[in-house]
Amino acid sequence: MAKVSRVYICQKCGHNSASWLGKCPSCQAWDSLAEEIQDNSKPSSGARRRWAPVEGGHSPRPITTALSEDGYSRVSTGIAELDRTMGGGVVPGSFILVGGDPGIGKSTLLLQVAGLMARRGPVLYVSGEESPGQIRMRGERLGMLSDNLLILPETQVELIEPHIDKVNPLLVIIDSIQTIYTDEIPSAPGTVGQIRESAGRLLAKCKSSSIPMFLIGHVTKDGAIAGPRLLEHMVDTVLYFEGESGGPFRIVRGVKNRFGSTNEIGVFEMKSNGLVQVDNPSELFLAQRPVGAPGSAVTACVNGARPLLLEIQALVCSSHLAAPRRATSGFDPNRLAILLAIIEKRGGYHLMGEDVFVNVAGGARIDEPAADLAVMAAVVSSFRNLAMDPLTMVVGEVGLAGETRAVSNLERRISEAAKLGFTKAVIPVGKGVAKKMDGLDIIQVRDVAEAMEALLGS
Ligand code: TYD
Ligand code: MG
Question: Mutate which of 125, 127, 270, 271 to test ligand 1's pocket (most atoms within 8 Å of Cβ)?
Fold first, then answer.
C-alpha cells in the first residue's frame, strides 16, 4: 500500500515544508513553495547510491587497491574546445550537466556533438523540447545528419531506459531535464521533486551502463528556479554556457569536474552553420577594441590552464540622479562598488556624482580579483577622459587600503600578452620579478595611486 503524503517544496532552494508558507524560511523567497506529492513506499532515487551495488553489498578495502580513474580512456566529443573544458574528453559513465539561458545554444552544441559522435557509433538524442522534424531541420543546417543519430521524442524516464539498453549508444543526450518525468512520483515535470527524481534514475542508468550522459538544463534569469543548481551535487561535471544571446560569442565554462580541473573554458562563435570553435580567443576578444579611446583597459585572466586577454570598458559620466547609477555587464556589481570606494578614498577621484558603467567586451565574464586594477584603470581613464597606451596590459588585485596584491600565474598572463604584441605590463610589486618578461617591460606598482600614475600620468 503506497503511503502518499503532501509536501511543499521551495522551487528556489529545495526547502521542504509540511505546510504551505508564503515565504520560504530557508532562502526568504516569497511565494516559492509548491505542492508536491511524495510516495513514501518507494526509496527516493536521489538517495540511491551512485555506483551499481554488488551482490551482498560492498566491503571496505585499502585505498591503494582501488583502481585509479586517472588513466580512464576518455572519448573525444569531436569538438576540441569542449573536450578541454571537461579535462580532455568524456569519461565513460560520466553524468554531465549543461546549463545555460534559454536560446543560448545548448541544443545546437549538443546536436553537433551527437552528429560528430554518430560517425563512430549510435548516439541517442532524447528530446522533450522539439519534434524530430525540428531537430532534423537543425541537423541539416549543421551538416550533422546521420543514420546513427537516433532521435527519441520521449519524456518519461521509464520509457527512455529500455531504449538505452536496446541501442547501447556511445552517448545519451537529454534535452532537457525540465521536460523529463518519472512515473514514480506524481508531481509535474519541471518541479524540484520531478527533476531530482528523474535525474536520480537517469544517473543510476548512466552508472550501471557506463554510457556517458549529457543533461541539458535551462537556467532562469532569477537564479534557476527548479533548475540546474539543484542537480549540481549529483552530477560529475557541470558546464555552463554563457554569452550575450544577441552577440556572436559563446563561452562554455566548467564549474565542477570530478574528472579534471574546473574553470576551464571553451570559446565558440555562433554562426549560421552552428557553433564554431575559436582558436585564438584573446585575439577575438580584442579585435574590436577602440584603440586610443578613454575608458578601455586590457587585462589577462586565467581560466583553468588558459590565459585570456580581455578588454574592460568603463563609461563615467556626470549623473542627474540623486543616487548615481552603477551598472555592470560581465563583472560583479558589488566588487565594482568596493573598487569605486577605493578610487574615491585612496585615489582622490570624486565619483560620487557620476554614473559608472563597466562592461567586459565580447560578452565575456570576469570573476577573479586579478582584474581589479584594470577595472579601476578603465574607470579613472574614462573619468579623466585620458586614453591609456593600447599596448599596455594591467593585472593586480586591490585591497581596501588601496594596496596592490600579487596575482597567481603571472608568467602565463604575461606570455599571453606577449603573443598578442603587448609591450608593457603594469603589475603589483613582487619578490624576484624581472624588469623584462617575454619581451614586455614590467612596471611594478605598490598601490592604486602608483598604478594610475604609471598608466595615465599624474
Ligand atoms: P538553441 O541551441 O536552440 O538554444 P538552447 O537549446 O540553449 O535553448 O539555440 C538557438 C539560437 O541559436 C537561435 O536563436 C538561433 C541560433 N542558431 C544560429 O545562430 N545558428 C545555428 O546554426 C543554429 C542551429 C542556431
Ligand atoms: Mg534547446
Answer: 270
pLDDT tens profile 210-253: 999 999 998 866 554 456 778 888 999 999 998 877 788 898 98
Whether 66 is covered by a domain: the verdict is no
Verify that 175 and 299 share a domain, yes or no.
Answer: no
Find residue 253's DSSP bridge partners.
240, 265
pLDDT in tens, 189-210: 888 889 999 999 999 999 999 9
Q: 98: domain CATH number?
A: 3.40.50.300
Q: For ligand 1, is residue 430 a contact (CB within 6 Å)?
A: no
Q: Which ligand is nearest to the CA of 136?
A: 1
Tell me: do 249 and 306 sit in the same domain: no
Residues 114 and 182 reside in one and the same domain: yes
320 and 413 in a single domain? The answer is: yes
pTM of the shown model: 0.79
Let me know if residue 332 belongs to a domain.
yes
